[in-house]
Amino acid sequence: MIPLMPIDTNDWFVICAALVNVAMLRAVRRYVNWIHGTMIWLFNFTLAVVVDHVIADKPFDFYDVMDSPKVEFMDLFLYFAVYPPPVYLFLILHQHLTQSRHMRVLLIFGFTAAITGLEKLASTAHVFTYNEWKLIYSSPVYLVVLLLNLQFLKWVKKQTNAA
């Protein structure tokens, strides 16, 4: 059984962010094929877990996630309910609003800035405690994550259309 810990600021942040994300996803869910959505969700959950543990754990130890170096329930909730939805929304908007190259570039950089801003809010709530990391380092990471997601969605669509 997972021991229950007192709920503090970072836990409340994760809970509130997850609720906002669920509301947002309910509003846009009809725009995405459920197979594509599930694959994107799993891809981002896995990507978040792997990247956070590679750069947040030893030997790098760039930052700490949540309250403990050990994986807690709220860590998993963070990876499942907070990380994937903004990327999911980005992909929906990219699919429906990017008729021009200018709009695609604007959307990619706009979401990079927005997700970096969400990280700033999360760090203010002590979801992240930076050791050697600086917020400015996150923007190129999010840019790469968004571009990887575009390519992954293209691949998923190709695979599901071939089946």
Automatic annotation (TrEMBL):
Highest rank taxon of the organism: Bacteria
Keywords: Membrane, Transmembrane, Transmembrane helix
Transmembrane segments: 40-56, 76-93, 105-123, 135-153
Annotated protein name in UniProt: Uncharacterized protein
Biological source species: Xylanibacillus composti
